[in-house]
Amino acid sequence: MGRVPCGDTLELGAYAGAVLYLRNLYDKPLRLGGVLGVYQAAAASLGKLAVLLAIKPTVVEPARPLPLPALCGHSAGRQLRYEDVSFAYGNGPEVLRGLMLDIPARPGRRSR
Predict the structure, then answer these.
(1) What residue ranges do the domains of the chain occupy?
(2) Full-model pTM
């Protein structure tokens, strides 16, 4: 068993001091381990983003795109329309069925 300096007893203050010194000794390496874990997670995420950015788009831009029709008013005829939209996660059951949604354009708003 361990030896106690200067007698057979250890005072509470000496014990508390030893525990605090040990805690301070191990605190920095533990923090460094946490930082390294965050770094590894960030590096893995960056790798996934690099793979996504390397994918070539399958939709080809037309050489001569058709112009949009002229507007009569601020946003006449401009809207986003979803008709009969359905969605399922993987091979699971449909969680969205027959969605119909019209979102009209708002005057003065432009996408960036």
Answers:
(1) 10-56, 76-106
(2) 0.36
